[in-house]
Each structure stands twice: as C-alpha cells, then as structure tokens.
Amino acid sequence: MVDRAFGEVRLAAVYDRFNPWEGRGDFGFYLPLVMGAGAVLDVGCGTGELLRRARREGHGGRLCGLDPAVGMLEVARGQGDIEWVLGDAGAVRGWDRQFELVVMTGHAFQVLVGDAELRATLAVIASVLTEDGCFAFETRNPLVREWETWDRRYSEVVSDAEGAMVRCVCQVVEPVAGELVSFTHTFTCDRWDQPEVSHSTLRFLDQDRLAAFLSEAGLVVAEQFGDWDRSPVTAVSPEIITLARRGG
Q1: What are the two backbone dihedrals, phi and then psi, of residue 77, each rounded to the nearest 5 degrees?
Q2: Which domain holds residue 87?
Q3: At residue 69, what are phi and psi to the nearest 5 degrees?
Q4: In what order do the strands lie in the sheet with 156-159?
Q5: Which residues are CB-neighbours of 97 under 8 A, at least 6 positions away?
Q6: For residue 4, is pLDDT > 50?
Q7: What is the rounded average pLDDT of the residues 27-56?
Q8: How far apart are CA 79 and CA 82, in angstroms?
Q9: Which residues pair with residue 224 across a beta bridge?
Q10: Which residues, other chains included, contact 138 with Cβ-Cβ below 8 Å and sequence gap of 6+?
Q11: Which of the four pLDDT bands, split at 50, 70 and 90, describes residue 66?
C-alpha cells in the first residue's frame, strides 16, 4: 500500500515491487471488466500496470490512464500505446460520454478526503461515462478498522531493479477519529543519501455515505461486493467494492 500520490521517480520505480500483481486481488477483479469495455479510463492509474496488462492481453480499444504523480507516469509511459494524462479528474473535464468503463484501483478513491474534492471528482466521472457505462472502484470497510494492522502488513523489504534493498516502514498517526486516517511510509536504502517519507490521509466511508455521494453525482449502486471473490458486503468484509451506473 505505497502512497499513490508521491511523485518521486525512484519510489515510483519500486511501487510494483511493493505491490506485485500476484499479491493483488483487485487487478484480478478489474481486468475482465477492462477487457470487456471498448474505452476505459483508469483514474489514479499509478504505474499503469492494469492498463498495460490489458494491452498485452489483447485489448484493442482506447485505454487512458490518469494520475497526478509525475514519477508514476514516468514508469507508465514506458508503454506508449496507451494515453497517459498527468493531473486529477479535472484534466479530463469535457470528455463527455467517452468511456464505457471508469476504474479506480488500489483504494485510490480513498485519497479523495474532502467533500468538495469528492463531489467534483464524481461529477467528472459521471460526465465521461457513456449512457450505459460503469464506474468500478473500491474502498475499505471502516467497520473492520484495517489500519490497526498496517504497521505489520505494509512494513516490508524489496529489491529494486539494481538489486538494492529498499525498506518500507508504515506508521499510522494516532489517535484515529472520524472518517480520516493519516499515516506515513518511510523508505530507506543503503544506496540513498537520506530516507524518503510519504505522508498520506485516506477517507473511510460507510455504505450509506458512499451511496449518498454517488447519488449527488447522478450515479446509483448497481452491484456491491465485500471482497474480490464477489461475496456480499457484511460487517466483517474487508472491502466495499462498488459498480455504479447512471441513475434512471
């Protein structure tokens, strides 16, 4: 769970090593959706691994990745047959009804911590969807309080492309109150002059609050799952995975 927003090129270069495809349930869920849509927008695409995999597996339509982090897109642009756009959702404002599918993976949706930012992003997403388009994304279930295990789950060591060991230590800022959880990732490597520290805050919305924000944007929940196996959402489900469509 390396912060999706940092733009340091050397950290972006090891992002996929901290988050390998094989260890991510979300990509296995989203890839069939991407392969079944002719035009796809990935908001908060990071290094673009989902879209790059879709292209390698034969997707012949339009694939567009959007991310505000320069370092992430430096990695993504290694594959040039996909559109890569630097910026937030405002960068695609005016692309009305152009995408059959919009995805936000890697819990990128939770980076939208303010009401105004969330509403603005959802409004743009709704505007770029085709009439029967789908917005697919996930957010962690706040009832599970997953952040209480992050210091163990997301503190690890990987090797970079040159074989140097990069260590990540995750620490949650206590106490946690309300919907917002703040935390840091501290990255160290013997070959670096100094550590790199990423400061992040994520928002944990419950199902009712989530549905209300979607409704304001003219979207309705079509399907919702509690995990990547498409099981229903319960009080102990780790995820709230949502497929939303235009309201009738």
Answers
A1: -70, 0
A2: 9-141+205-246
A3: -100, 120
A4: 156-159, 165-172, 180-189, 196-203
A5: 127, 128, 129, 130, 131, 133
A6: no
A7: 96
A8: 7
A9: 242
A10: 26, 104, 105, 107, 109, 239, 240, 241, 242
A11: very high
The two beta strands, 39-43 and 62-67, are parallel
- Residue 2 in any domain: the answer is no
Let me know: does 91 contact 72? Beta carbons within 8 Å.
Answer: no
| Strand 62-67, strand 83-86: pairing | parallel
- Residue 228 belongs to a domain with what CATH number? 3.40.50.150
Q: What is the pTM of this model?
A: 0.92
Tell me how far apart the alpha carbons of residues 184 and 117 are, in angstroms, rounded to a whole number.
22
Find residue 86's DSSP bridge partners: 67
Specify whether 96 is located in the same domain as 136. Answer: yes
Together in a domain, 27 and 132: yes
Single-letter residue type at 83:
E
Q: Are residues 232 and 161 in the same domain?
A: no
Half-sphere exposure of 214 (CA within 13 A, CB side): 22
Q: What is the pLDDT of residues 156-206, one digit of tens each?
A: 999 988 888 999 999 999 999 899 999 999 999 998 888 888 889 999 999
Q: How many residues does the chain have?
A: 248
